[in-house]
């Protein structure tokens, strides 16, 4: 199995110390090491181009020219940037380590002769922690984008005369507007109780079910008419239009069902 290439950025005030750390990874193929020395300069790079460094394990010292390591981490944290920092300290002062963690460090290490033995494992752990963090951020961001988009859609469609039902990519209902209740008399809970949560109703005949399924599987819209009953048992004719929506990869994301009352036209 291929190993991830782990990018390591050394932000160290001392070139000799940086070379010592770099040598630890020279004979290891899955690490790519780069260096920076000036605190202010690297702060500006991280602030202005965070995406380039978010998947990088950053070993940062304290005494850096123009801006110390703790201030760099603290300022970036305040900006909402979550980098994979490991704080490198020259002493074993617990207070300094605690402060580093509060400033956003994933871990801290002391300069010692044991570094060649322990540093790769610490780097690997920080890399995996940062990777999991980025995955969670991505999921939360996508969820928020979908929520905002759905809220906007709900605002537009809530009071439409047409009924709107939205289903997920498995065909399970997620949302229904007031227009559907106006047409049929059924609320969402009543609809679920009577018809279930799938976009293909069990009451449809097999031929109609197959036609609907085949079109949706081909990501094509499909329209059909059905005779139904309202909540007060009145006959009603409905025109139903199904439209699949795709994600950025071309896979089925949602199914939108638009329902129109065509009883007068039909009669």
Could you walk me through the main structural features you see in this protein, from its secondary elements to its overall organization?
The chain has 267 residues and is α/β, with parallel strands linked by helices. Helices cover 42% and strands 25% of the residues. The chain has helices spanning 15-24, 39-48, 69-78, 94-102, 115-157, 178-184, 188-195, 206-217, 263-266; strands spanning 6-11, 31-36, 56-60, 84-89, 107-110, 163-168, 173-176, 222-229, 235-246, 252-261. Helix 4 (94-102) links the parallel strand 4 and strand 5 (107-110). The N and C termini lie far apart (66 Å).
Question: Rg, please?
Answer: 29 Å
Chain oligomer state:
single chain
Please indicate the percent range of residues in DSSP E strands (runs of 2 or more).
Answer: 25-35%
Number of helices: 9
Largest sheet data: 5 strands, parallel
The overall average pLDDT, rounded, is 87
Physical arrangement of strands within the biggest beta sheet = 2-1-3-4-5
Going by helix content, strand content and strand pairing, the class is alpha/beta
Q: What are the secondary-structure elements, in order, as H or E?
A: EHEHEHEHEHEEHHHEEEH
How many strand elements? 10
CA-based shape: elongated
Question: Percentage of helical residues?
Answer: 40-55%
How far do the termini sit from each other? 66 Å
Low-confidence stretches: none
